[in-house]
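Contributing: when you submit paired examples, paste them exactly as shown. First protein:
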Amino acid sequence: MLALAQNYTAEHPSVAPFVEEMRAEYGFDPEHVRQLLAQAERRDSILEAISRPAERVRPWHEYRKIFITDRRIAEGVAFWNQHADALARAEEVYGVEPEIILAIIGVETFYGANKGSHRVIDALSTLGFDYPPRADFFRGQLKSFLVLTREQQVDPLSLTGSYAGAMGFPQFIPSSYLAYAVDFDEDGVRDIWNNPVDAIGSAANYFAEHKWKHGETVAVEATVSGEDYAQGFTLDRGLEAKISVGELKKLGWTPSVELQDDTQVMAFEFDAGDHKQYWLGLHNLHVITRYNRSVMYAMVVHQLAELIREARGE
């Protein structure tokens, strides 16, 4: 016999405080919130999924193969051809190249083919109420989710997304939706779930708001020599850590293209299987990590973008 799913009724210790916060902060009717949460279900599969993201358990050469495929490149070109006008307008308005928007949507949802099958309210309730390491964050996302569904007049029980509550073509978490989603086709609705034009504009707006620099280099491969090059690695100090190209040169790093010595970069290595790759990530790579806090993710987006652009003959 299958076990009955656990719902988030008033007996759960986190429900009553959450209901009161929604009333005090956003003016929600407490009974309405209680009824919604009573229909949300705790999902063990969500708790399992968040504990094993691909970026943490796979080396670069395996991770890259998941996303850089001939089919994903070809579908990216097809999506570009289908939505060329919207992509061109997004570049004009927001200063973000089409291939970057395509790569984000391609990596996140295979151009809308896989937007996630978890009910968003289940994902955010499970993580907000029963995942202590990041419960505060996900309760905040659950608040944002209820606000956006009220704003857009959408049934909170109807929307699906990823195991972490990310939604639509670009997989925005609810707070990102509230901050960056745009009504790019001007039909009165910010629809990232079903409207690729709104999704394109919203992804472009996200990058623009995080200071994407149009036309600038994203990452540069490098070679290393000597015994001191490992002192240049920055990722062990966090994604915000930077080092100047001049300092790296003194430690034995040689960029594959000329960079000014005062340029601040991330310096890291990847496991390419039979050898190591050494990379310098510039400002725009750091912007991509604002979308997903992983350098491997950012590099996959960057490389897929380049390959889509080349395949289309741009």
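Second protein:
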Amino acid sequence: MKSKHKLILFIIIVSIYNLLVYGLYYFESNFENTNIRNLADAYWYSLVTLTTVGYGDFYPITFWGRLIGILFVLGSLGILGYLITELSVKISEYLKKREMGFFGTKMKNHCIIIGWNSFSKRVAEQIVKANEPLAIVVNQESDLKDIRQLYSDDQCFVLLTNLKDYESIEKVNITDSRRVYISFESDTDTLVYTISLKKRFENINCVVAVENVELKSSFNYLGVQFIIPKKEIVSKFIASYIFEPNVALLTEDLISTSTEKSNLDICETQLSESSEHVNTNFIDTFIKLKKDLGITLVAISRNGELIKNPENNFKLLKDDILVYIANGENKQYLN
């Protein structure tokens, strides 16, 4: 309806403009000493006046011609103001859409967080610390502002949208993501949303954190590979701090993202076809990494199965994932 009104207004303005130009031509062309002799001269004068260029090569000399000329001069002020206003509005709209993530991202093999709360905030902090590409999807402007205050555009991409608008969620390039972490305060909301999301994007890899461990089987049925029971992990940590405090301190260091050389990290790297470690025995690779890089190889993941502390003669193959302990400096050499 709004566009229809704009079209009608445009037609009215164009009609009035053409009537004034014809009137200018009519009054001026019949005068002896005029320099506006035809419609082309009248249109040229009107355009030069309305755009505030004012060459002065054509000008009206009759009373009625000058009156129409005054209307063109006054109209030029309105047009200039209108153009400046429209330009400002368009720039503001563009910046607003850009801030909301309207134009999307082309990042690939990235992490996505859907939903923003205190728990997902801590998850995002670890991902950003690891310098991993991150996209966050939120449905409240206050969450958008919160993320903008915490992270720059280089650190993460943020999309503000209705979380059930799956066409908009495609703007975070969800099908090319590495992992999608779904974070809601309620386990039921998380489950319902995961069902809807997996129905639309069947092949995405989801990660969820739940309060109720009994829902684990429901998420497994949906094909969610990684379900983290919050209370179970917290209780294990507390128990470890009680009877094995040093083990707990080391575990905390390992699972948090290392930013300094003294910090340790558990990392994983997939072997490419060109890797020097393909077709080597586990023990040989273990010794070489430890000796050359100070990296401790602890497990191998093959076809989704985690093999802890393999046999010495276990042969590494292409696409195997090495799981190893490294500090903040040397972990980069195995990527």
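If you have annotations for the second protein, write them as plain sentences, like these:
The chain is about 50% helix and 15% strand.
The chain has three domains: 2-97, 111-233, 258-334.
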